[in-house]
Amino acid sequence: MTIDVGRYGIWRGQWDLSPEFAVEAESLGYGAIWIGGSPDGDLALAESMLDATERIVIATGIVNMWKTPAEEVAPSYHRIAAKHPDRFLLGLGIGHPEAVKEYRSPYATMVDYLDRLDAADVPVAGRALAALGPKALRLAADRTAGTHPYLTTPEHTREARRIVGEGVLVAPEQKVVLDTDPERARALGRPRVDRPYLHLVNYRSNLLRLGWSEADLDDGGSDALVDALVAHGEAETVAARLTAHLDAGADHVCAQVLTPEGVDPLPALRELAAALKLS
User: Fold this and answer.
1) From CA 4, how far away is CA 251, in angstroms rounded?
2) Which of 9, 27, 45, 152 can bridge 254 by disulfide, Cβ–Cβ 3.0-4.6 Å?
3) What is the set of domains in the chain, with CATH numbers?
4) Which residues, 6+ apart, have CB-to-CB distance to 153 below 8 Å?
């Protein structure tokens, strides 16, 4: 693929992103910012962050196929790609059945959506698919530049690489807390894992496939599960957990830094960048 997202990136909800944040992230050496929270089809936030920066890639993580028609997002893609060649990656996903009353045949919906993007000349190399299970991972490999799995572990990354093969982008998200106190870190991470994800069938099914038990997933998640899904410790420890995804076959891993409400994440991102030796 021609879009170079680098080895390490940042995942952050759209409501906590701005052009100013993108400038700082670029200066720290991160390769990409993934916009979470089902950004709108006009892709205005992505465009504003690209306009403010020179190098960093902006990706959506994800545009929700149920919320935004392909015919709406395609012109936005072309506008941005023409303005900022090789710096925008259109991450797409199906969401989850609990959020959509009309949720039907997710696989067929993904195929149809990708067909419509093909018809609108959105290139395979410019898009990625959020995928967890084997069937969706194979679709990502066949019809997009790669996959952006969310709420996963290096074990899932290893399996994703086996399924998609070489030459396909594997770019998982990893939640992190820079805190050496395990209880405090879990108190911050557990609510972000539990709600909504441990109550959604697609995420539960994926974790069960990875060998976790129903008991691990219930009641807010076991300590072992929370520790697996939310890396915590000093910056060097967290950096090693991110690198474990690369060792398992990922091309890129994006850190979602969790902080208490109202706390600026940039100090933690600076510490993490230093531990990762990004600059």
Assistant:
1) 10
2) 9
3) 8-276 (3.20.20.30)
4) 210, 228, 229
